[in-house]
Request: fold
Amino acid sequence: MKLPEGSLLGPFLAQRLGEVNKAKAKRSLGQLQGKIGEMPMTRGFQGALAAHFKASGKPGVIAELKGGSPFDSSFRKIIPYKDLAEDFEAVGAVCLSVAVERRTFAGSFSDLATVHDAVQIPVLAQDIVADPYQMLEARLAGADAVILSVSLLGEQLAGFIERATAIALDALVQVHTKTELDQALAAGADFICVTNRDIHGFALKPGTCEALLPLVPTEKIFAVAEGGLGTAEDLERMGKSGAKAVLMGTALMKDRDPAGVLERVLGIETEVEPG
Reply:
């Protein structure tokens, strides 16, 4: 795959592929496939979001756990993955997302496994997926879904979606432009995430979701919005634009009380015990 000239993703992609090659040397593709064949069925990431939307008529929240971000260097911390995952589930997150890239997101597949074991709701592996091996690693760690970037995979997208489906992973296909949306639809994607963030320049482009979501054929496609979103107003605005779910990460994780932020997003009043 060829990145656009000047893409800031280059070093991160090279780092990630280097880690994948080391993992392959320790455990072959065949070994992973054999272990996955013995695993229970996934929890149904897209299905859980669809059920929530059908029942409530409102977008569900996918709450993301991560210890850092290449988009915002102002936070980097040790995350109590088990406790926070339980808190997010209790507050009302429909699904969770866990960053598994180590260098910038300070995450790992071990963190994903911890979260999977702590909750009953589905979990997405947030990764820079450029090799099918990564999807097998995610499935083995307990992921129910993976995110695939059209900008990164290009013409390989359809093959990656097929490989994800073959191991019972839902493929959430990320798009940032009208061209990428058309590519995703042509590849057969039925689960599409419109992002406000350009993954090559890392810059937020507010308004991208509002511009592209109405172009998604929502009678056939389940649409998700992400990128700089983290308030109750954002949730309502994305719903009006056509999103049936919203992924929130940085806005939650930058706060000292991530679950508290999610409570405010969902309009939940915290009961104060009498003193």
Remarks:
- The domain at 10-38+45-265 is CATH 3.20.20.70 (TIM Barrel).
- The radius of gyration is 18 Å.
- The first helix runs from residue 10 to 26.
- The chain has 14 helices and eight strands.
